[in-house]
Every structure is written in C-alpha cells, then in structure tokens.
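Entry type: protein chain
Record version: 2
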Amino acid sequence: MSVEDRPSVTFVLVNHNGERHLHDALTSIRALDYDGEYDIVVVDNASTDGSLKILGGFNEVRVLAEPTNLGFAAGCNAGVAASDAECVAFVNTDMRLDPGWLTQAVAKYDPRSGYSCVAGLILDWDGDRIDFADAIVNYHGMASQVGFGVRVDKAAVEDGRELPFACGGAMLIGRSAFLDVGGFDPAYFAYFEDVDLGWRLRLAGNRIRLAAGARAFHRHHGTAGAYPSFQRALLLERNALRSLIKNVDDENLGRLLPAALMLLIERVLVASGSDRADYDFGARSERETETIARSALAPLHAVGDIVAELDSLIDERRRIQARRRVSDPDVFASFGRPFEPLGSASEGYLEAMTSVTQALRIDDLFGRRRATRVLVIGYDVIGGRMAGPGVRSWELAHALARHAPVTLAFTHRIERESPSVDIAYFATGEELGALVEEADVVVFQGFAVEGHRLLTAGRAIRVVDLYDPWIFEHLEDQRARSPASARTVLRRDVDVQRQLLSAGDFFICASERQRDYWLGMLTAVGRLDGPTYEHDETLRSLIDVVPYGCPEDEPPRASGTLRNDENGIADDDFVVLWTGGTWEWFDPIVVLDAFESLREAVPNSRLVFMGLELEGRGVPAQQRAQEVRDECARRSLLGDGVVLADWIPYDQRGAFMREADVAVIATRRLAESRLAFRSRTIDHFWTGLPTVTTSGDVLAEVVEREGAGIVVEPGDVASLAQALTRLASDADLRHAMSARALRLADDYRWTKVVEPMRRVIEEPWRWRALRANRDTPVAMTEDAQRLLAEWRRAVPQATAPAGGRGVARTAWSRTPEPVRRRLRPMLRRIR
C-alpha cells in the first residue's frame, strides 16, 4: 500500500479518571511510525482526577470534555462523531501501542474484500502473555478471549484469523462501516459492546480479522478493576441478553432466548448457594429469609433492566433485522465455541446447560459446521517418558490439531509443552465438565470413562478409542494375584467396557481384526441398529480403524545415544534391541535364551532393553520385569552382553533405536496376541529396524508378508536364535529389510492414520443425527423377566394379540399393587 493509499485515522480514547494511564497511552500513539495521517481524540467522561491536566500536555490531542460519564460505548460514538477520517482506531487508556501498531493494522484493513474491521493483538503489559488473539461467543451471548494468559511463545497466534468480533481495547474500523451499523450501542455502558458491534458488522456483510503484528500492551484492571464485581456482573449479563435479543432472527430467537433465560436463572441459583431442600413442601426450616451475595442477584437485576427498556430494545431489533444481509447460520459459524459454558463451571450448571441445549434442540442451529474444538482425554503417563497409551493420547491430539483446535486434558500435570495443542489439567468433575461442554468432539479410552459421567452425556460427539485390548492384558496380569483380586478386576473391566460401548457415538480401533471383534461386541450390546445400518452399510460410521502411528519427520540422528562407554557398546558391536516394556504377556526370557546362543556364534553381540517397566502409571509391578533382572544376574549377563537401560525418554527413542541393528519382540501363545497391535513395531518401521518377532499379532503378519523382518513361533528358542544369527551375519539382508520397514512407515504416519477421525471433525452433525435416531434397547435382567412372567400370570389379557392401548390399561389396572410397585421403576427405565 502506497503512502497515498493509506487511510487517514482518528484514534479515539475514552477516559474516566485514568490519570495514571494516559501518559503511557498517548506517548505510544504519538510515537507510531505510520506514514499516513492520523489524529487523536480523547473523550473525557467527567473525570475528577488529574486527567485534564495531563491531557493539557499533549497539544495535538483534541479533548471532548463531557459533563457526565457517558460510558465506553457512548464515549466512543462521541469521538467518532468528531472525526472525518476514513478509519477510527479505538484504544483503551490502559494500553500502550507498539510503534508499528497502526501500520500493521492498516495492512489488514481491506474493505473491498469485506475486511472493514481489524483486531489488534493484545498482550499483557510486559508482552509475555496473551490478552486477546482470538475470541469466541456462546449461544446465549457471552463471549471470551481464547488463550488469555497463555505465554506468547506457547500460543498459536494466527495472523489474519477471522474473528466474531474485535476487542474494543485496540481495534481499527472503517468509519463508514461503523456508522452504517449504528456504532456502539450506548445502552451497554461497558462490556460486550464490542461483541455486539462485531455481531452487527457480520450481519451487515462485513468481516473481521486479526493483525498479529499490531501489538498492544494492556495493564490489566486499569479501569474496570475500580468497580465492584457485582456491578460488572450485571453489565455482563444484561449486555449478553441485549445482543441476543437484537441480533438473532425471529426463527431462532424463540429457542435461544428461553435457553439463555433458563441458564441465567441456573447461574443465579449456583452463585447464591441456596439449599433447594429447604423449599420442599413440608420441609422443616425455621428461616424465612436467607442471605445471598449481590453478585448472585446481579443477573436478576439484569433481566429487570431488559424488561424496563424492552420497547426501545425491540425498536432497535427491528432496525437491525431490516438491514440484515447475512443469515444466522453464517454468523453462528464465526462463534467458534457456541456451547462453551461461560458464566459457571459447576457440575450442576453443566448438566443444566446440557439439558437445556438438548431439550430446545439448540444443536440444530449450530449443527452443520465443522468441529471447532476437539477434546482428547489423556490416558496413562504423559510426559518425558511414556508408554503406549500415553503416547497415543499425545500423538492423536497433535495429528487432529491439523484439522481443528485441540485440547489435551489430563488428571495429572502434563510435563510436556506443545505449540499446536492446548494443554489442560482437571482435578474435579466440574473442571472436566467445562472442557467437555466447550468441545464438539471428545476422544477418550479405557478407564477415563470411569467416575466421569459427563463423558457419557452432553452434546459433544464421543469418540471411544478401543485400540488397547486391556481386558486380555489384565487377565494375564492377574494370574499371579489372588483369585478374589482377579475376579474383582475382571468385573470392573467388563463394567467399564460396557460403559464405553454404550457411551460412544463413534469407535476406533487399531486393526481390521480388532474391528471384527468389536463389531461383535457392539452387536451384542445393541449398538447395531436399523438407523446406523441405513446410514452406512459398511458400518465404518460406527467403528473404523485408526492404527498406532509414527511421526512425519525422520527420527533424529544423535551419535553415541546407544553406543557409548556407559552402555559398554562399541561401534562394531551387533546390537539387538528390546524396544518396550516387559509386561506380563511378553516372553523376554526366551530372548535371553536365544541371545546366549547368538553370543556363541557372534561374540560381539549385545542385547539392550530400552527399559523394563515404566513406573508411576498406577499399575502393579511386573513379574516379567523382575524375572529379567533375576535371570540376567543368575546368568552373569549384566555387563557382559546385556544392558538394562532406564526407560528411554520419548523424544530420544528414535536416536536410540537408529543405533541398533535389529529389534526383537517375543510373546507367549495367548489370546492377547490375537488382538494385540504392537505399537513398538511401528517405531521399528519408523527407524528402519528389521524386526525379529514371534507370530500371532497382526503386525507380525505385516512384517512377514512385507519382508521387514523374520517371524518365528512363540517359545521356539532355536528358531529365534537362528533368525538373530542370520541377520547378524548378513548385512545385505539387514539393509534390505530396513528399506522395507522404512517404506511401511509411510502407511502408518499419524497424519494418515487419523483420516477416519477427520471425517467426524468435518461433519460432526452426521453423528449427532445418528445419536438422535439411535434405538435404545434395554436388556431385561432375570428379575425383570420374572416380574413380567408374574404379571402375565396375574393378568392373562396383557398377552392378548389384539386390543391396543385399552387392553394394556385394563391389564395394568388389574395388576396386583405389589407387582405394580416393583414394575414401575423398571418401566420408567425402559421409557
């Protein structure tokens, strides 16, 4: 943009007793490096401090001294009325601007393409953390700043990102566009006036985007912090309702406004702490009054304000709707997270929001859109050292982040940092519920469902990850435990498995073999029904395959990671690598037996275990791990060919594996192997390691079919030793197998394997529609069957082939009362 094309700009600052902020704000505007013309207008809202004296020191500033406090919205409008520039820039007095702010903002201003409004990037006063870089609006008019408080170097700031509104603290807008939509609504006084302006701009066909280079620095609570919280709460609640009433069309307001009012009342009840039990008719309570905080009553006064000004509000609504050029669905698409529970995060409130959302079918208004937030519930240990379930949580989150914003949440602090995924911690059901409510898709596995009933309810599409056949692992793990313990664990496993199969809208597993198994299970629990089959005869919309994956990048090369003096491994040694834990279903002892035979033929062979078991996972100590330690000591192998390494950090595993020659896996002949998907084998492909493995699992079949290693029968020491010896003596064979393994890695990139989940992210409404039409058969317990038999004996007419409802009513009326009492709870559950 040439100097001649740069728009003229008027900076509008609204001040009320901002003496301690004005100098920094005005000095930063004075120092801007903008090549075009700009001036400054300060609207002083009847300040009683030394503001006017400070303003007198800035000769270039025009001061509009108001006799009363007009508020932010009306003050801004007064400043715009005093300008004839092409653009106006609104800046709070507790901001200071980077010298390039205006140049960067103007670079994103392009009214010919619809971008008549530009939001600046707002940081904290020190420039370390995000204040405003993205925004969301929920369906009852509340708004929030995404990423608030996140460190700048950890935040994903997207330059040019489309926004539902620009923060009024630092924004640029075309003056004509501002005036065409009526400017800020002066009735707001403060809070959400920028949300309302953005809403009306979009209704009129304008677009809003972020200029990440236009940086402003905010001194928090420089102005609003001087006012009581209950006064601020009233403005927030009132203004959210105003935005809703004014801006939503007739068809949708009939659902959104009742929902907003019901949730407002629910927030009042939550904030008041009032005990509902005292209000039960006949309850004993001596108190006729109770004390309620003003912040709890503020929303009710907000409704009172709306009622008092309803006539003028409806007139304003008519004017806005008459100028509408864009439909509600197009505006709603910019909201980001319309179901985020802004205002309260208690479990009771979250359940109320879910009920209101479903009862009034609010989902339908926002249905045909991409997922705007995916929540992955972490599982197992997630940190520097991880086992398979934790790795899968981490990597799925990052692969899905290419398609939608993702939050990875866990009950323990995640000691890893990510530039592309939001990391969250939850300690209570309320905290988890808040995360679930703001998501369109929730992904979880295993025992995450246990104790968190909010994962089995709500509007989000529930993706259940069934990749790990842990029920078979636990059967093996419990063999050494007491029978009572084993029975308890199995019952718990079966119960959790039922919960998962009931909760999911979409299921993923690791292989086609697993899919066959889970299809049988889903059929057995009634999840295979007519609507599901009619939607997709292949049933891929019910359950599909998402294998374990490997990174896009090549593994790092770091010489000396494995071959070093500490491990006692020289450059010319032949290294056999056991690449994962020694869990109970593995057979590491047969590998020790085979290795001793290998050493006789190849003396410079080394066997390295990349860690025997990962501690801190909440699982019992593994007997197999102790057996390895005991056997190595008994055979005097430690320090003489066998290395028991500490669990290798996840980010170092690639470099460690690249220095090995061959990887080995050995399992016993168990049911577990049939359904297992050995995630460590995928790492072998990624690092180009030939794999020597026992047969039984699906990846062993891939290794054998593709020539990426050698497969032997479980327990066959001689064949295992022979395979290792053959690879040790034939470098050409190793290299050929390594090349085939590397080619296989391309089939298992994380970005590729998540393809079935991408479809859910792009069209979550399809799965929501399937859920709405799902049959919900209720399995009859033995007690229920016995009661129905008793009913039939008591009332033979109940089983008559004809007669309709009249016969059913007659049958019920003739049912003995003791039987009816026992039947009622069951019938309620069935209905």
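Comment: The CA atoms of residues 546 and 755 lie 8 Å apart.
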